[in-house]
Amino acid sequence: MSQSTSIPKKQDRVRDHGFDNYMEAEKKTRKVLKFQSLILSQPSQTLPISRFDSLARRLGLGFKENEAAAYLLKFPHVFEIYEHPVLRILFCRLTQKALLQIEQEKQALHAQLPDAVTRLRKLVMMSNTGRLRLEHVRIARKEFGLPDDFEYSVILKYPEFFRLFDARDTRNKYIEIVERDPELAICAIEKVREREYREKGLDAEDVRFSFLVNFPPGFKIGKYYRIAVWKWQRVPYWSPYENVSGYDLRSLEALKRMEKRAVATIHELLSLTVEKKISLERIAHFRMAMNLPKKLKDFLLQHQGIFYVSTRGNYGKLHTVFLREAYRKGELIEPNDLYLARRKLGELVLLSSRKAKVDKELVSYRRDTEVDDILCVRPDYMENDVKDFGVEYEIEHDGRREGYSLDSDFVSDDIDETEDLDERMDEKEDTV
């Protein structure tokens, strides 16, 4: 497959800072979500501060001793630390704004459940055999907007669409489509082509098999590369929903069509996700079922104008694939309610803790009456006014109002503060 393309295979990877900054912000959100899950798993939805270190080490979050508990202080808009009235020790619970965000996400997830059923039908229809492993879909359920119990609330609830069975040879559970619907076998790129043709009046032959190409800033496009892309755009291909088992795939022309079909398959896979992004490792789970190439990362880097592969967010260990045409300046062009509900958690996380007045007692985990006049908790701040919960926030700090929004440069000075946490806490104690 790699020898059939007309586009040069070896391309220098060009970074797009809009997508990289998006992943840097999401790195914080993923850690916060794990702590949220720990708190919500308790019957009282509270946890003593002393237990966070052991639980964080069990989850493999990479915190040193006493760092996990101090990490919570960086997000006062999500976690609230208070003294237990009976035990007289510090406990942690979620703020009212965080609880409101969780409830909004649950409502958005339930409201879009019919669309999630359609997305799952299209996803299974894209496989060669009309079936997918249940475990592979379970791993990527959040990306496709499926609930945690989708095996019961989606698959078993709609027996007219899905069939669940166990394979005899592997003993794995599979999701099988009951009947292929021709109305669902329409790719998202086909609708985009129709819109481009009607709005811009492009040549029908050029648009017939083309993709939207938007190269990242700084990508060098030479004369011969531009010609190669133009030729590749005119190459016909089979639809991701079409069964190609009856075709002879040994010719060079068939290899070119199959390669472009792989681009269309990944494009459609990303279009079915809620946030138009998914990790490269989760795409690899569908590789055999959807005839995708082995070296997925090199294949995606060959088409940097259509996809963007970000290595940010987990120290280079995580590869996230974005659909470039769906984003503009790091924001989804056509947002949905579930995407907006999830972004609200990111807004709470990105509100800087430096603008919040935190009691010295909570930093050092001891009572010290001498610092009450220097640094103290604002009671009106800790009430967590739910009415101010929105896209923009204003926090009173040193007698002035400061506004913060998600569109600001939120990763400039607070991207990853876990490594120098001990040094920063020592500096605060010396200052006091």
TrEMBL record:
Pfam families in alphabetical order: PORR
Domain PORR stretches: 14-352
Acidic residues bias (residue ranges): 410-424
GO molecular function terms noted in the UniProt entry: RNA binding
Organism: Gossypium trilobum
Protein name per the record: PORR domain-containing protein
Region named Disordered: 403-432
Domain of life: Eukaryota
InterPro entries the UniProt entry points to: PORR_domain, PORR_fam
